[in-house]
């Protein structure tokens, strides 16, 4: 297999780490905490973030030229999710994973 | 459940129909036919198309405001996939599902 | 494309319908209703159900011989999800989609 | 977020690594090599393997009790995929990722 470039590989890993952080936090910490954590707009954003990260990784793994657009959208959603997790608090791992992923995705978006 | 609007519901259905047509055709007809059908650029496009359709449906089902951007990307990939399937031939169901999906996604993209 | 058998096609459709009902209801009705609807065990079951339905459809679409095991697991999760939605109430579309999907998946599980 | 147990965390990582290896190899090395690599049974198995790995990780991340059954199925498909990649040759990273994932999934399957 012709391996992805080191930069793409870092982005794939950032996407899959962010997917894990957001989906795992939403389905455990958020559901168990309730209150602001299950407020529809916040919870949807975390699930949307985890899904676009999963999709971005998929597009990069298959070397689709369309990964640039998907990564651009991923960066935008991750940034918004980081801000919302920061606002609510108590989700530092998500904030950090989202910020890292947004930064890597912006590089791939060209 | 507050149902999606009729227009969004039509788009969700077009996405899931296109997902089925492209993924099913790639993994059966294309793999079994070989030749142009498994040429990397074509095969990747079909898998990319099926994946973005799956993701678009997911974003609309959860009522994420970000569905507009995902639908715009979906319309673009579906249009390209329709053209490539037409060029190779023998994949009328894909061409038609991709064209329908592109049209519905463009309406959602606003 | 050699089409799936009519029975498999019905199962694919039942899976994708159940995916839509469970994921859409969880991310809209359940999040907006709160209370029992966002109780972790219930909400996780709805998301698990939507995910295994998505995966079962994927395995059947690609004609993987392993669809029999995935469909068996899908039938089990759908049945449990139908019962839990019935217990909480107010989710008739999910109950019905889960029961249909469980019935179709049991036929595919052989 | 109550973190997954160290054993579950190792399994999630093994699943996501195997997903990357199988999907990336199928969509690049296999498509570009052709011949045995795009023989339908082999190619489908690699895609099935990548998909069940993605689903297993999803079930563990959400702490669904059903992860035990999904992990059992994942172990079986990974083992079969490892053997098939070994038979064809030239896919050592897949063989190794599949074997690791099968071993971790068997521990989770109980």
TrEMBL record, chains A, B, C, D:
- Check the record and name the InterPro entries matching this protein: Csp_YhjQ, YHJQ-like
- Tell me the domain of life: Bacteria
Under the heading PANTHER family, the entry gives: CYTOPLASMIC PROTEIN (PTHR37310:SF1), CYTOPLASMIC PROTEIN-RELATED (PTHR37310)
Q: What is this protein called?
A: Four-helix bundle copper-binding protein
- Please name the source species: Microvirga brassicacearum
């Amino acid at each position: 297999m012709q391996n992805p470039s080191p930069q793409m590989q870092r982005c794939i890993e950032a996407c899959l780490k962010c997917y894990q952080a957001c989906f795992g936090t939403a389905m455990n910490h958020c559901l168990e905490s309730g209150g602001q954590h299950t407020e529809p707009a916040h919870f949807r954003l975390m699930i949307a973030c985890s899904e676009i990260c999963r999709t971005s990784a998929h597009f990069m793994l298959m070397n689709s030229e369309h990964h640039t657009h998907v990564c651009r959208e991923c960066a935008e959603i991750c940034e918004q999710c980081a801000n919302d997790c920061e606002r609510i608090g108590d989700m530092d791992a998500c904030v950090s994973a989202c910020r890292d992923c947004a930064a890597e995705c912006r590089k791939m978006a060209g």
